[in-house]
Amino acid sequence: MTRACDTDRQSLLMDIQKVDFMLVDLNLFLDTHLMLSRPMQYIEAYAKAGADLITVHVEAEDNCAETLEAIHALGVRAGVSINPETPVSALEPLLPLCDLVLVMTVKPGFGGQTLREDCVAKIPKIREMIVETGRDILIEVDGGVKQSNAAQVIEQPVSLSRLAYLLATRTYDELRLGFQVQLGGLPGY
After folding, report:
1. At how many degrees (to 10) do helices 40-49 and 9-25 cross?
2. Residues with Cβ < 8 Å from 118, sequence gap 6 or more?
């Protein structure tokens, strides 16, 4: 997974180069999360660099439906992310256009935050909305997931939990459960 945040243009270009480098040297599925206010201007560069899935925020300034359609037009899977303060109803018109819903369980862009239980509580409603569409849409959770609260997230109907904290701070034995959860929910990926 790679993330791009609203920063200066040079940082974004370096991030795109990282995507390209990772794909040349590693044969991985690349899930790219663009935490940008105007992601439309970068999706083509990430697609060309080899991103397999590009996730954008429903709260972005760009029209989210148009952005998801543009991502698909580039031959890439599309995801939509929802921030903690955003109601799940914002996802409803976008579900026919996405392959993944990313539930932010912390405020995006700031590491070390605590998992927000009110965000975890959104997951069952999102799952219901997805079931109503009849589509196979993955649900991811991002932020504040660590060993002490991973079970709370695992109990939810999520497909993937981004365990970046665990990856950065834990031993192999501590990570095994996380990888089993992470990889077990990705049919076709």
Report:
1. 20
2. 84
CA pair distance 99, 137, nearest whole angstrom: 5
Q: Which residues pair with residue 41 across a beta bridge?
A: none
In angstroms, the CA 163 to CA 144 distance is 9
Helix (H) or strand (E) holding 181: helix 172-184
Query: So what's the pLDDT on residue 115?
Result: 83
Angle at CA of residue 39, ends 36 and 41, nearest 5°: 135
Residue 142 has what pLDDT?
Answer: 83
For tokens 């997230």, the residue is: 153
| pLDDT for position 31 | 81
User: What stretches in the chain show pLDDT beneath 50?
Assistant: 1-14, 161-189
CA 8 to the chain's CA centroid: 22
For residue 136, give both structure tokens: 């196979």
AA letter at 74: L
Distance CA 31, CA 53 (A): 5
- From residue 161, alpha-carbon distances to 3, 72, 156, 188 in Å are 15, 23, 10, 17
